[in-house]
Design a protein that fits this description.
The protein is of the alpha+beta class and 526 residues long. The protein has a single domain, classed as Cytochrome p450 (Orthogonal Bundle). 53% of the residues lie in helices and 11% in strands. It contains 20 helices and 13 strands. The strands form 4 sheets. It has a 6-stranded mixed β-sheet with strand order 1-2-3-9-6-4, sandwiched between helices. Strand 7 and strand 8 form a beta hairpin. It is globular. The protein starts with a helix and ends with a strand. Belongs to the cytochrome P450 family. It holds the Pfam family p450. It comes from Glarea lozoyensis (strain ATCC 20868 / MF5171). Keywords: Heme, Iron, Membrane, Metal-binding, Monooxygenase, Oxidoreductase, Transmembrane, Transmembrane helix.
Length: 526
């Protein structure tokens, strides 16, 4: 009896799956025809529910080769740039076409949301915040955050210099014989630096995670635990994404423990800020001259809400993005520069000419926002880093109504395609940025000179675009520039110590090197 019941259930599931599959095809075909759309390329599945596609993606993720899987997949489909597939019981559209990406992010922005899948995958860690919200809640968060990234805030580099000095204080202590340091991994040090600058910038108080400057053993353990927990929490959150509607039931090993450590730490900061706000009467009206001139995100947020959970999640959303984007991008820049010493030396020569040597430079006078922005080759290096190693390899939007995309239909892909309400649309930034048709035969090469005279378009979206373009873009570019200037002023040579044949990738909130950035350093001035 039990066997028969199980058999009947399996038969029901198979029938339901097939009926749903073909009903969706029929309904969407009728709507597409009415809107003048043409069929798009359809990926054939070898296993039910598209499990073969999911297995390929999970295997690539686990082997730190997800970007290469993306490239291989689209290379096999060429010249197709937009397709649809059935995975985990639902249809999804995927594209690497810049025209479609422009439509999703800008031209038809109102037709697309982040969608419930992102919220479900990130909810335990990031809750409700600017990077998980849609509609009125997102608009409110964006307007509240906008003043933090005003011109005055971006141009104030005093705090960045303070934390860069902490990093530079650590590095000389690693020196050995023959004027070269011992082998070190710069990536975790850069993540600690970025965490400290981000927390001070957003909260008015640094996390002080650069461990050489933490005073007690207890504080060392606490700081290290917080930084490690952020890494594990973001990596686990990213892993949940590939399971789509089933992400709420996926809990990577150790993930919730890491999430709880991060939440506990942030809750402590929030509690302290709420107490200080009460003591300083920040919630009351005060005379203009008594108000702080420097915008601090947490203080402004407390004026809107005193809910500690809401405060926690808003802070986390911004903190994770701020830390990871800068740290991963500077790490990738060094990763490439040490493999191409001629580019390293050219950039260093320009930096010394524009900003002076390390000992001669007075940062408050010589390293200004305007001078960094005007240093073309430095900006080319950063642009090229973000092209080859975008913070997000893929991104997704979900149609909030029946709509269309301008290209991908018909045999030549020039016709518009139908996107039904609720359909996720994934765009692969990694593939877009390395497309030879857009970037030339040397698209895979790190060549900053390609940016000389090139205008940015929808073939380059490291910070997204349209109404949801990253508010912190200018701040991130400024901080990246500053860190690279100070490192190249201090070290006239860096030697690559990584023997891996290809870069491997850890995918958390952003894309960082699974190899680390293993180098030896040579100080320019003794």
């Amino acid at each position: 009896m039990i066997v028969l019941s199980i058999f009947a259930f399996v038969v029901f599931v198979v029938i339901y799956y097939n009926v749903s599959y073909y009903l969706d095809l029929y309904r969407n075909a009728q709507k597409a025809k009415a809107l003048g759309c043409k069929p798009m390329h359809r990926v054939a599945n070898r296993l039910p529910f598209g499990l073969d596609q999911i297995n390929i993606e999970k295997s690539a993720f686990d082997k730190h080769k997800y970007p290469y899987m993306l490239e291989e997949t689209w290379a096999e489909r060429a010249p197709v740039t937009t397709s649809e597939m059935f995975a985990l019981g639902a249809w999804q559209t995927r594209t690497v076409d810049p025209v479609n990406i422009q439509a999703i992010l800008a031209g038809q922005f109102a037709d697309f949301d982040l969608g419930k899948f992102r919220q479900q995958a990130t909810a335990p860690f990031l809750g409700q915040g600017i990077f998980t919200q849609d509609g009125a809640a997102w608009k409110h968060s964006r307007e509240m955050l906008r003043p933090q990234f005003s011109g005055a805030q971006v141009r104030d580099l005093t705090s960045v210099e303070f934390h860069v000095q902490r990093l530079l204080d650590v590095l000389p202590r690693m020196s050995s014989v023959d004027d070269w340091s011992k082998e070190i991994d710069l990536q975790p040090l850069l993540f600690a630096l970025s965490l400290d600058t981000s927390t001070e910038f957003l909260l008015g108080k640094s996390a002080d995670s650069q461990l050489e400057n933490v005073q007690t053993e207890k504080e060392v353990v606490k700081a290290k635990g917080f930084a490690t927990a952020i890494d594990e929490a973001t990596k686990g959150t990213s892993a949940r994404f590939m399971y789509g509607p089933f992400s709420p039931y996926v809990f990577p090993k150790g993930w919730m423990s890491a999430v709880n450590i991060v939440h506990s730490t942030i809750d402590g900061i929030v509690s302290e800020a709420l107490v200080k706000a009460q003591n300083k009467m920040l919630l009351d009206d005060r005379k203009p001259e008594e108000k702080r001139s420097r915008y601090v995100f947490l203080e402004e947020l407390i004026k809107d809400t005193q809910d500690p959970i809401e405060l926690r999640f808003q802070i986390l959303n911004i903190l994770i993005a701020g830390r990871d984007t800068t740290a991963s991008s500077v790490s990738w820049a060094i990763f490439e520069l040490v493999r191409q010493p001629q580019i390293y030396q050219r950039l260093r020569k320009i930096i010394l000419h524009e900003f002076g040597t390390y000992s001669q430079c007075k940062p408050e006078r010589d390293i200004t926002f305007a001078k960094m922005k005007a240093c073309s080759y430095l900006q080319y290096v950063i642009n090229e880093t973000l092209r080859l190693y975008p913070p997000l390899l893929v991104n997704t939007r979900v149609a909030n109504k029946d709509t269309t995309l301008p290209r991908g239909g018909g045999l030549d892909g020039s016709g518009k395609v139908f996107i039904p309400k609720g359909r996720p649309v994934m765009y692969a930034v990694w593939v877009l940025h390395r497309n030879e048709a857009l970037w030339g035969k040397d698209a895979q090469q790190f060549r900053p000179e390609r940016w000389d005279g090139r205008k940015m378009g929808w073939d380059y979206v490291p910070f997204n675009g349209g109404p949801r373009i990253c508010l912190g873009q200018q701040f991130a570019m400024t901080e990246m520039s500053y860190i690279l200037i100070r490192l190249l002023q201090r070290f006239d040579k860096m030697e690559n110590m990584d023997t891996s044949p290809i870069p491997l990738h850890n995918l958390g909130t952003t894309n960082c090197s699974a190899n680390g950035v293993k180098v030896k350093l040579h100080e320019a001035e003794k």
